[in-house]
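G.,

No rush on this.
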Amino acid sequence: MRGVGVRGRPRSLDDTGVIRMESYEARPGTAVRVREGHRRPELEGMGGTIEHCWGSPDYLALDVRLEDGRSELFWFHQLDTAAPARVAYYDGS
């Protein structure tokens, strides 16, 4: 699979400065967010997790389990990677 384990590869930014997802980043378990401009506006900004990847590594289709529980199929370019939730640091005091 092309791109697996590639480091130092430049990331793509869209016009708003959001990091766009590249096909080599799409793996089951990856947290994603639906990009603005999606053909179904009610899905824009919704978060989810990749469950399955289909097709060529150069142009993947992804099954995503959305935060409302439904599953939808997307092309990789319709999604952004979502930052993982930050864990609060406890210093013991």
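When you get to it, here's the other one too:
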Amino acid sequence: MKNKYLALLAASSFAFFMQACDHNSIAAGEPGFDKDDDKSSSSVKGDDKSSSSSASEESESLASLYVVGSDYKTGEIRWVENDSISAKSLEIYQDTKLVTVGDKLFALERSGSDNVALINTADHKVVWETALSDYSNPTDIVAAGKNEAWVALEGTDSFVKISMENGKVLKTVKTTDFVSEGGYSPNLVDFEVSGDTLFAVFQRYVSNFDADGNWTGTSYPKGLLALYGLKDGELLDTIQLAKKNPSAVAVVKGEVYVASMGEYNASYGTDADDERGIEKVNLSKKSSELYVSGKKIGAGVYNFAVDYKAGVAYAVAYKGMDMTTYATEAPVMKIDLAAGSAEAIKGIADAEGGLVVDAATGVLYVGDRTYGEEAVYSYDGKKVAKVASAAEKALAPYSLAVVK
């Protein structure tokens, strides 16, 4: 029974990590994790040597940018100092997502570690670290009020409120009613806050097995959007989404948008069709319909970041991987949300390594995991520029965050 449960977790983790959980996630393959391993401990580790990478154009006046690097076995956090990615690093779990809440930086150590940690951005050390339930897989964190935050959990049928002062769990909200028949979790992948409302998007997928307990694939019903009271977590409403396998939710200029990957094709890529894309939710009618199709975007939306002031979204279009060369095609598309138009940002081939907008400047930062050409880039609306790095052996970018 235990072996089958572990197989289910591995299979469903593959399904989850093959899409944009968050904002930042893996599409290259099944993540390697072992619950028998000790949970990751964090420590600052300086590199012995440093060198600066060169590029035809390098970004200037960088914000407080933080970068998780990962090779799927080990992980690290680096930061920008002197306009370059640091030579020093903080050791972290290999599957870690960075999220900011105000001026606070959180590290969500996901399946296989299942921790949330507060990082001190002054000395780059861990302030506190809280262990969550096994296989809970934290995917997002948002402010719930003064010194409190909600943590989204993909791998279990609940989400939790924690203290931002010490990480203590203050409240648990059950989501059992949203679990699909045959599933074990409703797969909560993203939060959004607007006013006093907490928006939560659920994938609700089901991992299928044969009589011998071998994983045979994943079924995707249509996704679900749930609205909660921000302060108390009381369920206010639910809305059936139009498409399958949602990856993100954003409220921009009064409109609610949900991005989706849709189902995978035979080669584990996604198609440019009307079965995925960005949908717009009508809260008064409790309905949702496709707004920017996968045809325009070029594939399913693997990752999603928003410039709220400009009304612009950036979507990573996950087209798939060449199984001969193992090169992944995942370009960034710029979406005008008011017009519903999409255009490609040239110069970034594999944007699986993170996507974040600096709210103060509107500059987009992208992690490119192209083998042999791994780098972080900035995009100011006109040009793409490579972010310089003082790290001689930095791991490929995996998740990005900008601290105010």
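Residues 1-60 have pLDDT under 50 and may be disordered. The longest strand covers residues 235-244.

Enjoy the weekend,
O.
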